[in-house]
Design brief:
The complex is a heterodimer of chains A (about 400) and B (about 90). In chain A, α5 packs antiparallel against α6, α6 runs parallel beside α8 and α18 packs across α19. Among the domains of chain A are: about 200 residues; about 70 residues, Winged helix-like DNA-binding domain superfamily/Winged helix DNA-binding domain (Arc Repressor Mutant, subunit A), CATH 1.10.10. The longest helix of chain A is centred in the first third of the chain and has 24 residues. In chain A, β3 and β4 form a beta hairpin. Chain A is mainly alpha-helical. Helices cover about 65% and strands about 5% of the residues of chain A. Chain A is elongated, with a radius of gyration of 29 Å. The model of chain A has no long low-confidence stretch (mean pLDDT about 95). Chain B has one domain. Helix content of chain B is about 35%, strand content about 0%. The longest helix of chain B has 14 residues. The chains are: A mainly alpha (about 400), B mainly alpha (about 90). At the A-B interface, α1, α3, α4, α7 and α9 of A face α1, α2, β1 and α3 of B. β1 of chain A pairs antiparallel with β1 of chain B. Chain B: One of its GO terms (cellular component) is proteasome regulatory particle, lid subcomplex. Chain B: Keywords: Nucleus, Proteasome. Chain B: This is 26S proteasome complex subunit SEM1.
Chain lengths: ~400, ~90
Amino acid sequence: MKKYTKLVPFLKIVEECINNKDGYELASLLSVKKIHSPALMGQIAKSNIIKLCKENLPKYWDVTVCSQLKALYAYQNSNVIEACEEQKACVHAFDKLFQDLDRWVLPLVYVIHSDLYYLSVLADQELVKQNKKAGNLEEFARILNKAFSYCLNDRRVPVTNSRKWGTYYIANLLFKTYFKLKSTNLCKNIQTAINANNMLKLEEFPISQQVTFHYYSGLILFLDEQYREAEKHLLKAFKYTRGKSEKNIMIILHLLIPIRLLSGVMPSNRLLNEYSPIKETYGNLIKSIRSGNVKKFESSLKKKEKEFINRNTYLTIEKCKILCMRRLFKKVYNIEGKPTRMYVSSFKHALKFVDMDIEDDEVECLIAVMIEKGYIRGYISHEKRIVVLSASNAFPDINTISLA
Amino acid sequence: MADPKDKNTSTDAETTPAEDEKTVEKKVNVLEDDDEFEDFPADEWEDVKIEHQWQDTWEDDNNEDDFYNQLMNETEKITGVQPMKL
């Protein structure tokens, strides 16, 4: 990439990009991570850059670019608080331009907002260290919401040049921001706004944006315990992430595996062998569910308790205990030759074998829960202490049972 | 301040030393160290065919491991594997 040693030629190129509507090149020139030559950095450090910008760039573009360069300089000199303020000024100035611009400028919109996200996070961390009030990220959420509306509500026809094409990128960045702020409830507003709008189909957007959108949609549904719907989104995200980002694959799998386990779908050995950290985390749990070894399930869960709590999946995985127990009961049923009547004591004995020493009534209660959930087909005769099982399919496939 | 024309002709521009760039690059990338979903590289995406990643029929096999054999012994102790008499 060409390096500029002087500011004016650099600004001329910026102007050329604006005139040619080259959003991609403009975005690459105006990223805080752009590495400029030391000579150019020296010039940015001088106080008269606003004058040069004003002389070389159209109105509002001058402040946009000038503030961006100051943000870059501050950031690359480890002054994140100042960098954040300058980047904010850049986005504010750009805001005045944005409503009159169309699709071509979106790459720039993405880069200046995503830079402001990171600078806000870093500045807030720094402010907390200094015992000062840290509200940059919250402010950023408001700024970004404005950009979101500019995109979503652009009604120009034909839609080819519409800012609507920026909607999903900005929505994804909003999700990220809300999760960082722990205000995940606000994500729903974004989804509602998109659904209410006569929006373009998600499939028409770049795959990277689709995948991220599916990931967040899945995560939001997961937290809402809507597992089936969450699963659909996460599977789509997973399908395209392969070979793209190991980090994102891990994040998706750590959600997808617990959800799928609960509905009776196991990751295959092939999948486990492909991702060794996943095997390390779930290998023993999966083995124990497969064999119905409730004791081993408990100890494997205990070992990974902290990790699952951090990942918000502990409760989901804990729910798989009933699956493991169902597996145990089914094995006893098979060993006894698939009868239509079984003593409660058979199950009690099996549970004792895996260190669950409980009373008859408690065993009946467990079986009742499984019958209620559809894991076992039959009924309990409390007086005779027997379970009467359906003649056909007494232990139906778990993946055919709806998740309550 | 200097006239912009002077800026154009000023000669404080030198070639960039390579080590310097490395340090700047390192500094610039601190943003990435986070456990969040990261931005994807903007390159071509193709549909990757993936098979046998998931298994939903794992209950079909009896999974006759040590645990199964022990469980069978235990169950036989109390039932003698006799069909239940009623």
